[in-house]
Design brief:
311 residues; mainly beta; two-stranded antiparallel ribbon; flat
């Protein structure tokens, strides 16, 4: 399987594939983060020589140590309470007082009573009106402003996106990491912008008032009231008269006693604490003696840089 490097691959018409370039640059940044250039700096790499990445593996050693598995702790055991049944005298029903109501004793007596008091009845006579017509202004004269929008035209021009430059590119070929210098041409892109041809204008228009005919109601004779006198009405009725008023009689009912079994605590509930000692175990762990290291080494032959633009 062939993996290309982190260069700017070119599409049809010489335009860069920006999405592929961004993904390859992220891959190179993660793969070679912290990897220094070979001795001699960029001046030594500017020639035709190519390099590859060599990885020295990390070194570990095994260490045995005692590890606390479970610390010393206390466990509380709950002991339930001990109860017993005891016979006890209790009140089944308390002493109480009952009140008996004795209704009143009455007799009927005849008397004249007012059924309806004298009153006045008011009748409202509605007003007499007539309808007349008159000319009224419906809408006043006004001025309306009309806005004519501005006029624009579109212009297109080429803009420099990235100047020509030379960059160091790193990639994978035949399982080795290869770094080379590559010349990248300048990049241009067309840009469209709008230019104002005529500014926005405002024109005022005067609209005359409008008139119409409205009908209104006039009072010829106002409304008034007519009062009618209504006499009082009496009749003979029988009404109850109290001979002996209602009253209450109280009766005292003595208390009622009985026997029942109740549960009492002979020994209360309590907690017993037990101490459990700590537990240890022997475990092995790996300790890093020297971390893995990456370095640049000269690549064999000149085949690695034969086509640097492909990386």
């Amino acid at each position: 399987m062939r993996l290309s490097g982190v260069g700017v691959s070119m599409g049809v018409g010489g335009r860069p594939k920006r999405r592929k370039e961004s993904a390859l640059r992220q891959f190179a940044a993660l793969l070679f983060a912290g990897l220094a250039l070979p001795a001699g700096g960029s001046a030594a790499l500017a020639g035709s020589a190519c390099y590859r990445v060599v990885v020295d593996p990390a070194q570990y050693r095994t260490i045995e140590e005692n590890v606390l598995v479970a610390p010393e702790r206390e466990v509380a055991h709950y002991v339930a309470a001990v109860t017993r049944q005891v016979e006890q005298n209790v009140i089944v029903q308390r002493e109480r007082t009952v009140t008996h109501f004795v209704p009143a004793v009455t007799r009927l007596e005849a008397e004249n009573v007012l059924v309806r008091a004298a009153s006045q009845q008011v009748h409202v006579v509605p007003a007499v009106t007539r309808v007349t017509s008159e000319s009224v202004e419906l809408t006043p004269a006004r001025t309306v402003s009309h806005t004519i929008p501005a006029e624009y035209r579109t212009m297109t021009e080429n803009v420099l996106v990235a100047p020509a430059h030379r960059e160091w590119r790193v990639g994978l070929k035949h399982g080795d990491t290869v770094g080379c210098w590559v010349d990248v041409p300048a990049l241009y892109t067309p840009r469209t912008r709008e230019v104002q041809v005529r500014a926005e204008q405002t024109i005022d228009e005067t609209i005359p008032p409008t008139y119409g005919t409205r009908q209104r109601e006039e009072v010829v004779e106002p409304a008034h009231e007519v009062v009618t006198e209504i006499p009082a009405v009496y009749e003979t009725r029988e009404r109850p008269v109290v001979v002996e008023p209602a009253h209450s009689v109280e009766e005292t009912i003595p208390a009622v006693y009985g026997t029942r079994m109740v549960e009492e605590v002979a020994e209360p509930a309590h907690t017993v604490t037990e101490t459990i000692p700590a537990q240890y175990a022997v475990r092995e762990r790996q300790e890093l003696v020297s971390p893995a290291a990456r370095r640049w080494a000269p690549a064999p032959g000149d085949g690695y840089c034969a086509h640097p633009a492909a990386y």
